[in-house]
């Protein structure tokens, strides 16, 4: 039987301030949906931090519960898709954006958002991966689909100490690629080496500010989590027939380059979105994470926190001070 109330990390607006607090909510306050889930774990993403600090481009209505990822146990399902006790996960769609999200003991969501937890993953492992892992997997899948193999050459990963970057480094290394990781954190080289990076470069080394339309071709593929001029430099530095995946914009939304990399080197630029990815494709990638793409070093990537710890970690992720993934242990 579902409880009448639950604890949640809630954000309320008071004039121009956004107040974050762990409060008790009534189950009657949950949005309409097919499936009621008792959340065990979530994760902290940059998007969650924006939602928790009143970023109108992410969340428009408050009070609100952020959390774009959730893993837990089905309590009720009016769709007939699942049974009480089934382990499930939800990432993306509108969860934690304008629908109350995973930073709560209970969520209610449409059946179209919910996947069964693969047998080879624990709820905690699924949330260390979360949206970041799904995004990294889409990047790697795009490289493979465009005939980029370990023998093709080195793969550049920008923003390598972030959530998507860390998981991309680990996954690419597992698949046998030579990974060149980019970071501005000089004290995290050992961390990246442990994940499988063969070489580590500073941001300055891959941020060319000249107006050259092409640079020396160095990369068979790129996983870019930053955007802006770092992405433009990476594209201009990609070798003939290479593939660049783009999934971030913290470095800016402008892309200062010419068409030369595309028409003279045949470089492919692939945009990556995991938010509205069809459920069938999600399920395939989650299955791979539980089987042939299973990462055995997830604990090295994650820091575990509770709901009451979130304000500190939200501030840290906004300041670029978080390395790897932040796993949120929701269940009390």
TrEMBL record:
SUPFAM superfamilies: GroES-like, NAD(P)-binding Rossmann-fold domains. Its EC number is 1.3.1.95. It is an enzyme of class 1 (oxidoreductase). Keywords: Oxidoreductase. Residues 12-328 form the Enoyl reductase (ER) domain. InterPro entries: Acrylyl-CoA_reductase_AcuI, ADH-like_C, ADH-like_N, ER, GroES-like_sf, NAD(P)-bd_dom_sf, Zn-ADH-like_protein. Signal peptide: none annotated. This is Acryloyl-CoA reductase.
């Amino acid at each position: 039987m579902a409880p009448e109330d639950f604890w949640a990390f809630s954000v309320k607006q008071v004039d121009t301030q956004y107040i974050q607090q762990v409060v008790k909510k009534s189950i009657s306050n949950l949005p309409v949906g097919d499936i009621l889930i008792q959340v065990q774990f979530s994760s902290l993403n940059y998007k969650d931090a924006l939602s928790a600090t009143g970023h109108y481009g992410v969340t428009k209505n408050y009070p609100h519960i952020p959390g774009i990822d959730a893993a837990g146990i089905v309590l009720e399902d009016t769709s007939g898709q699942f049974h009480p006790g089934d382990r499930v996960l939800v990432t993306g769609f509108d969860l934690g954006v304008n629908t109350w999200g995973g930073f709560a003991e209970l969520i209610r969501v449409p059946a179209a958002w919910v996947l069964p937890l693969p047998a080879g993953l624990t709820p905690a492992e699924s949330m260390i991966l979360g949206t970041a892992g799904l995004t990294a997997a889409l990047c790697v899948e795009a490289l493979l689909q465009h005939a980029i193999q370990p023998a093709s050459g080195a793969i550049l990963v920008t923003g390598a100490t972030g959530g998507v970057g860390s998981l991309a480094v680990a996954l690419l290394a597992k698949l046998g690629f030579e990974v060149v990781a980019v970071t501005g954190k000089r004290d995290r080289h050992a961390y990246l080496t442990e994940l499988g990076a063969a070489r580590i470069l500073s941001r300055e080394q891959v941020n060319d500010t000249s107006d050259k339309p092409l640079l020396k071709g160095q990369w068979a593929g790129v996983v870019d989590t930053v955007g802006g001029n770092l992405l433009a430099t990476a594209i201009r530095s990609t070798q003939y027939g290479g593939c660049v995946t783009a999934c971030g914009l913290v470095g800016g939304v402008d892309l200062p380059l010419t068409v030369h990399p595309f028409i003279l080197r045949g470089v492919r630029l692939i945009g990556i979105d995991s938010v509205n990815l069809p459920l069938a494709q999600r399920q395939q990638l989650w299955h791979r994470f539980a089987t042939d793409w299973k990462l055995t070093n997830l604990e090295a990537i994650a820091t575990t926190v509770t709901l009451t710890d979130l304000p500190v970690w939200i501030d840290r992720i906004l300041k670029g001070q978080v390395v790897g993934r932040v796993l949120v242990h929701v269940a009390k």
